[in-house]
Amino acid sequence: MIDRRLNPRALVLTLVLMLGLAGCSLGGGASASPTAGAVSPTATIAAAASATSAAVAVAPTAGSLPVAPAVAAGNIPATTTAATTTTAAARTAASPTVGTATTGLPDIAGVAAQVRPATVLVLNLVQARTRGGGLPGQATPGGGVPGQATPGTGAGTTPQGAGSGFIYDPAGYIVTNNHVVEGAQQLQVVLPPPDNRTFTATLVGRDPQTDLAVLKIDGTNLPTVPLGRSGQLRVGEWVVAIGNALALQGGPTVTQGVVSATGRDEQEPPSQSAPNTAGPTLYDLIQTDAAINPGNSGGPLVNLRGEVVGVNTLGSSQAQGINFAISIDGAKPIIDQIRQHGAVTRGYLGIGGATVTPAIAASRGLTAMNGVAIGQLDPGGPAAQAGLQQNDVIVGLGDVSIQGLKDLQDALTTRYKPGDTVAVKVDRGGTTQTIQVTLGTRPGA
Fold first, then answer.
1. What residues are labeled active site?
2. pTM greater than the 0.90 cutoff
3. Residue-wise pLDDT tens digits, 249-289
4. Which letter, b or e, does each residue of 76-92 get, where b requires 16 or more Cβ atoms within 10 Å of its Cβ?
5. Which of 59, 158, 227, 408 is deepest in the core (most CB within 10 A)?
6. β-pairing verdict for 238-243 and 431-438
7. d(Cα 346, Cα 396) in Å, to the nearest integer?
8. What count of Cα atoms within 13 Å lies in the side-chain half-sphere of residue 51?
9. With respect to CATH, is domain 1-62+107-344 assigned 3.40.1440.60?
């Protein structure tokens, strides 16, 4: 089960702690989004303190874990040479490549120093209810009277969620998750310490199907992080996840791990606006054991060169070390379309499908060993109207070979548009058929 939720009371009280201890202008502004990695405005101070205590209790000691966790914690293995006592900053300065220390060992601290300044807190704000009418399921921000405005977030607004994002363009463009900004009446972006600048953000556009959104802020001397290439990732390669876990004060949290797998497909949980409807299936995901916690949604997953290779989005509640990020190679064309048009226009087939795996093939009795197996059909959708059937396996779309869901989604997003008639090649019980389908527009798009 994929989990992006946090008990809505904890974050509000955590924010109170933030105001009291840090004098932060966020007020009650840290909370959680309805999906994994976004924080709901309700974690208790006790929960936050408990999480902190747990983190301290399991912190690795030098020599007890691989070098990267030890370096990230500031614990450098002791040797008899004076050179090994060099600080992380000095090692980074001496290294030819960010993230690689002179000893050849991963320098997580160097990566964090490069990327954290451009990793922002995204606050999802809604209009506060009148006195005595607080938001459903939420504690009153700051412990005051229900319905009062939250300090520091603007008159009459209260946070309904908080997540992360990263500035990738000095003009102020920010990438985040759709579920972080969904339902917002106002969006606020806060840069990490020591900058601490706060901006009202403009929503350029969002794409629920890929869980991506683009924001814009107006500011000068904005820190940025470069986009890398996820297609070059190797399984076992070190990566670093950065984001505002639980929206705790002090700036983004840094976790490290490896690329566990690439090319994963995973279904999102239902959104807050449609709790009884299954979320979209995300494709071409990076699986990593770097921790992605509530509040990390929309933050960057970076390689040891400090380049974004993924957008953090999902974490599993039923297993340890199974977390997902949207690959940046798949995200780039979506981001570009949003920037140019404010939305993504794609051809609509009207199917629910999954990449064929040996397990899916065995369970459904399929003969095809690659392609996209149709599990659901919109009765009034283009595919059903043209004669496609459940358990058909799509192996071609026009002149595009379909090996899996990524190929199908890419073709519908970048190659074909609503109104195009395309030849859909399917494997039906071992026989290949070609069916002409006129693509439509997704309902509600």
1. 179, 211, 297
2. no
3. 899 999 999 999 999 988 887 766 667 676 778 888 999 99
4. beeeeeeeeebebeebb
5. 158
6. unpaired
7. 17
8. 16
9. no
